[in-house]
Amino acid sequence: QVAPPDARLHVEGEEVELDQQGYGTKKGLVSKEYTYSVSAEGYKRKTGTFNPATKSIVSLELPAEDAYYSTKKKFFQIARKMRQQRDFEVKVWTEKDTYQIGETIRFHFRSEKDCYLNLVNINSRGEVTLFFPNRYHQNNRIRAGKAYTIPARDYGFSLKVQPPRGKDRVFLLASNTQLDIFDTDFSGKSFLSLERDGTDSDQIRGIGVKLNRSELQSAAQCTISVQ
Question: Residue 151: which residues within 8 A CB-CB, separation 6 or more?
Fold first, then answer.
């Protein structure tokens, strides 16, 4: 079990494939010490040993190099935790899993109960974009069973996939009460974006702190490969 899930895990030099939740399985092991290494962009590499006879499940967390990657990992960990403890189901999806830079993309989401939602995209560099709420739909209270699309047709524009290449993670966070994770001032902008070229790291770190304090009832995530 690895965090972040975008890491590369090797056991005895052989890569072990990880799923979207960061779980990987290595079969055919015997009772002896095996070496492993885990690495991911933006995180410090970790190496070590384990014996499957004494520890069949190994949890590995890589320390983040900065606030952006640290906050990205917190989103992932909370979303994974909420999959096991959710009070109701929410779902987020796109039309496909792989996009080219410059392609049009739409995000879709739905909840089985009325709730407040945040739809958040985090790219491979840890940069954050809040897609919902936004300037066009500032009330983030949604109705049960209704499918929502960002950007909706009445927004009057399409959304294009932006660099960098890599894996984007899209998170849907749901609460029975109003969420207070982001400063939702959309003056002069359609969506709130926190990029490395102009955002103080304290601001992105503050989002991680607020996320830990939030009372969530459900969460979901999907991944997009940007090429």
Answer: 106, 136, 157, 158, 159
Cα separation, 75 vs 117, whole angstroms = 14
> Residue 165: what pLDDT?
96
CA–CA distance, 217 with 77 (Å, rounded to integer): 15
Q: Which residue has the tokens 């009057």?
A: 156
Q: Judging by beta carbons within 10 Å of its beta carbon (0-12, 13-18, 19+), is residue 61 exposed, middle or buried?
A: middle
* CA–CA gap between residue 152 and residue 207 (Å, rounded): 26
Residue 132 has a pLDDT of 96
Alpha carbons 12 and 49: distance in angstroms, whole number: 10
Q: What is the DSSP string of 47-79?
A: EEEE-TTT-S---EEPPBSSHHHHHHHHHHHHH
Q: Is 96:226 a contact under the CB 8 Å cutoff?
A: no
pLDDT in tens, 15-52: 999 998 999 999 999 999 999 999 999 999 999 999 99
Name the pTM for this structure: 0.91
Are 94 and 108 spatial neighbours (Cβ–Cβ below 8 Å)?
yes
Is residue 126 within 8 A of residue 69, CB to CB? The reply is: yes
pLDDT of 130 reads: 96
Q: Over 90: is that where the pLDDT of 122 sits?
A: yes
